[in-house]
Fold this protein.
Amino acid sequence: MESLDLFFKTIVLRPYVFVFLAAFLFSAIKLIGWPRTWRFWLISWSTAFVCEFSSTRTGIPFGWYFYNGSTIGQELYFFDVPFMDSISFSFLLFASYCVALGLLLPFDVTLKNDRSSLKPLRFDVTARTSWAVYGLTALLFAFIDMVIDPVALRGDRWFLGKIYYYPDPGWHFGVPFANYVGWAVVGLISLALYIPLDRRLTSFIPPPPVAQRLLLGIGLYYGVLAFNLGMTFWIGETFMGISGLLMHLPIVMILTSRLVIRQ
């Protein structure tokens, strides 16, 4: 009962996390179906939790950092890891996967445009589980954290709160480079476990237009990015916000150019 009470407190304390989680579930079910969605979530969440548990005790793979326990009693923790933190990896990895698919999936020349403003994409298992998608997803996963982690580290200046710290602050707005390597490691491990399952499960191809369904996950990626950039500018970290904006702007331009049909 105490855990259930803390779970509801977590929802009240971190409603934005659960909005993003709901968006993940909705967009993932639309794109890959429920059997793949719950496996993706379980694999990515458990991988993230194990890595966070390890890193707060051994420094591997994120480098050394510690949760200070400032919200114990206000939200759910597993050991010393906040539930909302490890669960965030799942929707961020799926969103990164969608952006990678948007950049790399081949066009389906057999489908007519059907008056859509998006180009038709081929979503077969070979295309969506390629090595290129695997690597780019992990890269985009770490890339979005280069906006998230610096503002999260300053959580005492907004409603996140000061929940963790690095004993040896890094060069990127106080975040060590090892943290971003750790994010890539979580992405690579999670996908290495998920992709073989995707190949073995019953064949599933979402009904067309695939690009519109994919756009839900892409929207989640940029929704999370916009939220964190908004918090960055709100706390007065203008240079940090502009830096994050300029980092991601080229990807937005390439993605738009690739997916949107020019009139």
Observations:
- The chain has one domain: 2-259.
- Strands lie at 66-67, 77-78, 81-82, 164-165.
- The radius of gyration is 19 Å.
- The chain is about 65% helix and 5% strand.
